[in-house]
What we know:
The structure holds 2 protein chains of 2 kinds. Chain A has 8 helices and no strands. By secondary structure, chain A is mainly α. Chain A has a domain at 158-205. The longest helix of chain A is centred in the middle third of the chain and has 25 residues, at 70-94. Chain B is built from 12 helices and no strands. Chain A binds chain B through residues 47-48, 51, 54, 70-71, 74-75, 77-78, 81-83, 85-87, 89-90, 92-94, 96-97, 99-100, 143, 146-147, and chain B through 71-73, 76, 108-110, 113-114, 116-118, 120-121, 123-124, 127-128, 130-132, 134, 139, 142-143, 146-147, 149-150, 153, 157, 169-171.
Amino acid sequence: MSPAVLTLAATTGPGFLSPTGVEIAFALVGLATLGAAAITVTTKQLVHAALWLVVALGGIAVEYLLLTAEFIAWVQVLIYLGSVVVLLLFGLMLTKAPIGPSPDADSGNRPIALGVAVVAAAALVWVVVDAFRTTWIDLDGPVQGSTKVSGEILFRHWVLPFEALSVLLLAALIGAIVLSHRTDPADPDPAAPGATGLNARATAARPTAPRPTDKGPR
Amino acid sequence: MNDALDVALRLVLVFAVFLVLPLVVGQTEHKVMAHMQGRLGPMYAGGFHGWAQLVADGVKFAQKEDVVPANADRRIFQLAPAVALLPYLLVLIVIPLGPGKGAVGQVIDAGLFFALAVMGVGVLGSLMAGWASANKFSLLGGLRTAAQLLAYELPMLLAAASVAMAAGTVSLPGILESFQWWWLPWQIVGAVVFFTAGLAELQRPPFDMPVADSEIIFGAYTEYTGLRFALFLLAEYAGIVVLCALTTVLFLGGWHGPFGADGLGWVWTLLKVAILAFVVIWLRVSYPRLREDQLQKLAWTVLIPLALAQIALTGIVKVAIQ
């Protein structure tokens, strides 16, 4: 960093050299979150990975709080900690995740995954740093990420992306229903869910050869 | 200094409430269930109508050996009761007892979100216990817990969202300030959905399939003994207090009452919480346990459509009166 940039930073906002308590806390929580995330992907115990993910996601919620984005922080806890991780644990329990290390938890893709992760992280850091280089949040003033502010920004300025996202989620929802209702062509039972009308008659007319591949785990 | 003292005092008060109210609910459950079944319930501990029964129970639990099964995942097994219990303590901080800023532990702008989010985290404790116990009954209990949470979280959130729409805020004191008496009939469907879904989230009868003691031996808590088991029990009763208090604040007007709202607001809140807690106990005595498929069906085909209808009604009325 050249001296010119340093002086620019010093004139436009608080510098990096005398961090406040909140900034120190932000950095420490960030380190803890990073550590938890690293353990999540390296631990050989599947359920431990899910629980370390709880720590990492909770750490991100704390970071949001420190940046005064209260609403986003609680949504993070509600959606990720309360629902996504529970879904994850549910899935792990269904597969009888063993206590102790799973020998097949390692895959040969490790170097490639590391490369992708590093590139993605570098791109994100670069974009965020480039976008918010000279923007400073006044942490001592009134809360800037309150529910009211978030709602107004979301539904005034960003309403189109918001609605587009909801359509995307709807498509995902319908896709999930279609996938879970996929009927086995070898199954002659017309009362099976999804096998209606033409579809059912077509499957009944076809010779019913056993197809073991269709019975695989979904 | 004064501020620090103020915060410390509030936290101590919330902690005292957290320790006392669940025990009161537990003792009430002993006595109410007994009288509904034509028994007397505990009569000896403490002398007067067995009032100290739960204190004696606590002493008994503390004396028991703390056993961790040999095959269990030790650390997660030991951590689970804390994860189950602490969220309810945190939620109590934001629940307003009376009008004004003096009667709430801490005003949080997104208090409704905070309460629901943190309550959802408590279930992680049951899941951790169910998995880490290395017991098939525990695992089954954990699975049922997860399935039940996923089914009932949605109607609970939708019902709460209806109140937030009506009040135009997600702050719990803010909701109470804009409360009018006619919200009671207006939001009654949402109230029933919220309370039912909350009961299911707490795994209270008739939604106690995950802990069904007569078939999977208390589910996720099979292997727990002594103090850790007591913590899980305490979490259940703290959950009852939190659920009843949240329902009171969101749907029953909290400290609003027919008279004396200024000085006696906290009495109204506690009275409503007590009545709801009585209903929780009453339901336990009167209804048989729902089967797992009935549980799921109730959530997805009854509660969620009802909650959505309530949101539509709230929206229509809200637009009409503006």
